[in-house]
């Protein structure tokens, strides 16, 4: 019997990613480089002959744009697509748009007197709330509950629809948080690349991690382009 398997993609490289700004709930489109990288990913998935029954994204434009490019490249653009705001990126409140170096390399380390790599997810969330002057940043309890319930609902839907593969496009910190919630031994602060694929299976109400941050599909797609198998 087929398993429920979720292919969870970090969206393509955006304008804010390129200039090193925290995106959060703000949104910028993919750059030309970002679009090419996701096209590579779609070609790699096609070459691997991975077919999807359903597609899911957050409600952010950058994830929807990413999904459209993937599905067109692997010729699966007609599968059902659902947007779910629960799998959005973390909300940085008034710090949305701040430079990553100042937020993660300056503000948070100054609050806790330790390097960002040594902070727990709860400390990061608490620190962002502490310095958010607008009062928009989410608590750690809110973040982990919405992420968990969002991905759980997706997995339950795929399973109830007969199992199989689903493709999900989400965000770097959101995916890293999910991996940690599934297995707390997962290293914190995962630096997931744009267009990376993390794979989890779902069975008997439980997730199992198969891969985190896999770039092999993108690399294969890049090889195909460079060898002239497809037009860029």
Automatic annotation (TrEMBL):
It comes from the Bacteria. GO terms for cellular component: cytoplasm. Pfam families: His_Phos_1 (PF00300). GO terms for molecular function: isomerase activity; phosphatase activity. The active site is at residues 11, 89. It comes from Streptococcus hyointestinalis. PANTHER family: BROAD-SPECIFICITY PHOSPHATASE YOR283W-RELATED, PHOSPHOGLYCERATE MUTASE 2 PARALOG. Its EC number is 5.4.2.-. InterPro entries: His_Pase_superF_clade-1, His_PPase_superfam, PGM_Phosphatase. Substrate binds at residues 10-17, 62. SMART domains: PGAM. This is Phosphoglycerate mutase. Keywords: Isomerase.
